[in-house]
Amino acid sequence: MRHYFTDNSDTISQPTQFIYNYRKYNFLFTSDHGVFSKNMIDYGSRVLLDGFFKNEEKSLLDVGCGYGTFGICLKKVYPELKVDMVDINDRALSLAKLNAKNNNVDVSVYKSSVYENVHESYDIIVSNPPVRAGKEIVTAILTGAYEHLNQNGSLWIILQKKQGAPSAKKKMSEVFGQCEVIKRDKGCLLYTSPSPRD
To answer: Residue 131 has what pLDDT?
Structure first.
């Protein structure tokens, strides 16, 4: 069995489409077998999108972008953002590129295992970490963000309480010196470090 957090382009393809409404926009997403939350935007991702806000930030990196939920939605709502999206899953990357085109957003999508091929720094990093990939990968997303955030940048992470959210909060506090809970919703916790400025 090939998992969504691996390069699984040989998985049987059976594309499906759905509409997702976010902040006055209707997004058309194409999904497929072998990617996370194939049939709809997962609840945790919706919690992050509903809780997200920005100030003067100009750039965003979506780590583990899947078929493009965060990067595409946030680019549409905040068109001034420079958005890059990375994933290890080739099928997810192909879908993210297709979804960006179909939703008329200009983003950069490329392959990277966590930050392996990321050579820039950003004002914002967002991620719904692939918990099933293991604690090592989740921790790498949290700790590696430090080297890829600009001064006054912020990391936004959504996790379920039962899937390691408390330990992630502890790790983010260790790395960044602080971690704020932005939103709690049905066991999902939205964290950010450092705390964004109002």
So the answer is: 78
